[in-house]
Design brief:
The complex is a heterodimer of chains A (about 230) and B (about 280). With about 230 residues, chain A is mainly alpha-helical. Chain A is built from 9 helices and no strands. Chain A starts with a helix and ends in a 17-residue tail after the last helix. The relative contact order of chain B is 0.15. Classes of the chains: A mainly alpha (about 230), B alpha/beta (about 280). The structure holds adenosine-5'-triphosphate (ATP) and magnesium ion.
């Protein structure tokens, strides 16, 4: 085992790491935004639109990410859509992630008792205000574990982008491996790299969950005024 | 009994249903409901479980979209707009909100927003709907909370309050928007018996101040004392209606007599039972 291979290529590896971080973050962000939009439309749209969205979700869920990416990158040009590897990668991750995020958000929305929306509507709040002020603040707390979990999963899909030559961590390290025949060292480095990313994500998630659960049970720790009730309800 | 009746002037119809029907699938839950509620009138809706009381109340607020007939809130058609071709189409949310701007609703399950403090619950619509400044909204919210006897709980979280207190917060939240009509769907049914009184007390005060109220309730005592008119609903029909004294003392329909009989029987059974000793605590 000769780890000098890694130190010699440190800057390439570093930039691969950054590209992975960037595609991951970008994919999560795009997926979450599109997913939220899908979930919101599913709440309010008529049966026709809902049917179309249902189809989109089912198709994306039923096909491998690799196939979707190939279709986007190699099939795109024949539909007049020529994308750089990076753009295809980000869009691909966004599309793939969107359906899972949409499902998570949908569960979140349905977990807030309907009566709370009715109360808001009777007070004259608009559908948007109800979503932003009543539903989302409460459901984020509930779905956070699922969001963190899927974010980790999406991170582990980013190596697929190496196949369309996005210069992310896997692409860089397997390249170095093939060049120098130091397969074991580079693959080990890959493992460590993804482990670090997953660890980062889970730490971030735990921190957020701690904050969120404090927010959820805020009734327990008072801002002064209220005395705790003698007995639990 | 109710002084506010004096304030009512003829023809001042606040809420009206004409030939209103509601189906859930094949099941007709409300049939040809005709109802007219005057300003300051307090109407109690009674009837057996499943008779359609909630559905009627919710249809009057368009939380259920009724199928046939019409509902008018202060003369405006609720929930539908007339299209060019004479057919009716569902109103846009903004139009719906506009028609029910003077209508408040209180639910059996309170439906407070648990992520906002008590005062924030009351302020929310003042800020977002009325567009009030934060300080003004807070002041009005506190005044309203005071009215229901909960000013000192302003900064508490809803789930730290008793059911009776939560329901009073819900009433304050609705009241802060200064509605002209308030609908109550079994506001005390989710409460422990000893907490019912405090909520009914607030509602009674509202009635005395001249609020127009429609109340679905199983509290016959409240209906007898506070209502101007009681409606008995059975299987989706208004079977009988009139002043509470007449309805409760001289029910015309056998169904109502039976319904009231059940209540009476339960109460006498209860009164006949020896007072329980509090050995459990
Ligand atoms: N969303 C719904 N979908 C289908 N059926 C419904 C729905 N809501 C109510 N129903 C039915 O309509 C009928 C009337 O229900 P409703 O809740 O109005 O009765 P209620 O008089 O309020 O009864 P309770 O005293 O138990 O509250 C019942 O048969 C009920 O099963
Ligand atoms: Mg009911």
């Amino acid at each position: 085992m000769d780890l000098t291979v890694l130190t010699e290529h440190a800057s390439e590896i570093g930039s691969g790491f950054l590209v992975t971080l960037w595609t991951w973050g970008g994919g999560v962000l795009a997926g979450a935004i599109v997913g939220l939009i899908i979930a919101v439309i599913q709440l309010s749209a008529g049966p026709w639109v809902r049917g179309v969205l249902r189809c989109y979700i089912e198709v994306i869920r039923a096909t491998p990410f690799l196939v979707q990416l190939f279709l986007l990158y190699y099939g795109g040009p024949s539909l007049g859509l020529s994308l750089s590897p990076m753009a295809a990668g980000l869009i691909g991750l966004g599309i793939y992630g969107s359906v899972y995020f949409a499902e998570i958000f949908r569960t979140g929305f349905t977990s807030i008792p309907r009566g709370q929306q009715e109360a808001a509507a009777m007070l004259g709040m608009t559908p948007w205000q109800i979503i932003w002020r009543v539903q989302i603040p409460q459901m984020l707390v509930l779905i956070l574990p699922a969001l963190v979990n899927f974010t980790t999963i999406l991170g582990k899909e980013t190596p697929v982008l190496s196949i369309i030559t996005v210069p992310e961590l896997t692409f860089v390290l397997t390249g170095i491996g093939a060049e120098t025949f130091a397969y074991v060292e580079t693959l080990l480095a890959l493992c460590v790299g993804y482990f670090l990313l997953a660890e980062l994500c889970s730490r971030l998630g735990q921190w957020l969950e701690r904050r969120a659960s404090r927010y959820l049970t805020q009734g327990v720790r008072q801002r002064g005024a209220l005395k705790p009730r003698e007995s639990a309800a | 009994m109710n002084q506010s009746t004096a304030k009512r002037s003829a023809g001042d119809v606040m809420l009206e249903a004409r030939g209103m029907s509601k189906r859930f699938g094949e099941h007709t839950v409300l049939q040809d409901i005709n109802l007219s509620i005057q300003r300051s009138e307090v109407v109690c809706l009674i009837g057996p479980s499943g008779s359609g009381k909630s559905t009627l109340l919710r249809s009057l607020a368009f939380l259920e979209n009724y199928d046939d007939g019409e509902v008018f809130v202060e003369g405006e058609l609720l929930g539908y707009d007339r299209a060019r071709d004479g057919r009716r189409v569902r109103s846009r949310p903004s139009r719906l909100s506009d028609v029910r701007r003077n209508m408040g609703m209180v639910f059996q399950q309170f439906n407070l927003w648990p992520h906002l403090s008590v005062v924030e619950n009351v302020m929310e619509a003042l800020l977002r709907v009325r567009g009030m400044k934060s300080a003004d909204a807070r002041r009005l919210a506190l005044t309203t909370l005071e009215k229901v006897g909960l000013a000192e709980k302003a900064d508490a979280w809803p789930n730290r309050l008793s059911g009776g207190q939560q329901q009073r917060v819900a009433i304050a939240r609705s009241l802060a928007m200064s509605p002209a009509i308030m609908l109550f769907d079994e506001p005390t049914s989710a409460l422990d018996p000893e907490l019912v009184g405090e909520v009914l007390q607030v509602m009674r005060q509202l009635a005395e101040e001249g609020m127009t109220m429609v109340v679905v309730t199983h509290e016959m005592g409240f209906a007898a004392k506070v209502a101007d008119r009681v409606l008995f609903l059975d299987q989706g029909h208004i079977v009988e209606q009139g002043p509470p004294t007449r309805l409760f003392r001289h029910p015309q329909s056998p169904r109502l007599a039976q319904f009231l009989g059940n209540y009476l029987e339960r109460n006498t059974l209860f009164e006949a039972a020896p007072a329980p000793n509090h050995v459990d605590d």
